[in-house]
Amino acid sequence: MRVIFFIDQISTWTGKLFAWAILILTFVVSYEVFMRYVMGAPTTWAYDTSYMLYGTLFMMSGAYALAHNAHVRADVVSRYFPTRVQAGLELALYLVFFYPGILALLFYGWDFFAISYRQNEHSSYTPGGPPIWPYKFVIPACAALLALQGLAEVSRCVLCLRHGKWPRRLGDVEEIAIPINKEAEIKAAQEQSKEPRQ
To answer: Whole-angstrom Cα distance, residue 60 to residue 50?
Structure first.
């Protein structure tokens, strides 16, 4: 469990670090709007900066979301399966779909970055655009973090298959049904205690 939590903490720390990009992105877009519509002097760099920041924020938060079980899931039916069946199904999906996709993203993303770096590629959207290869490096970096977090998730599935219950998570993101169910249980217990005994 220590190794799983260590990987979770790496993903969490990375997600929280790159979450600051939203503030920089907000400043860049606000500055561009002000310069364009108030001062009548649009910038040449804001468009490139904004899509690079947004893409980086989106990609680098993937491992964070996976660590905290916050990805959107189509588990309408599988949530009613026994715990071991859920774990087996998730393990199969990680091995058949997740890892082949992530490894392809890592392999081809690295090539994509390396070619851009060797050519010292710059953005073609604006004249004298900024270098784009640092942004392309985010692709293999994101894939590496997702692959690492995937190891923790696969380990959780294996532990669940062994012990019959899901191991704990760091708990930064909680499914909305959990607090609602707890609240309903508390209310039901209070109402039962108020009922007169016969």
So the answer is: 15
Whether the CB-CB separation of 143 and 67 falls below 8 Å is answered with no
Q: Please give the C-alpha separations between residue 78 and each of 109, 158, 173, 184, in angstroms, as whole numbers.
A: 33, 17, 20, 23
Statement: the pTM of the whole predicted model exceeds 0.70: yes
Distance CA 174, CA 181 (A): 12
Q: What is the pLDDT of residues 38-65, one digit of tens each?
A: 898 888 888 888 889 999 999 999 999 9
Q: Provide the greatest CA pair distance for the chain.
A: 85
Angle between helices 2-19 and 133-163 (to 10 degrees): 150
Which among 36, 60, 37 has a CA at the least distance from the CA of 47? 36
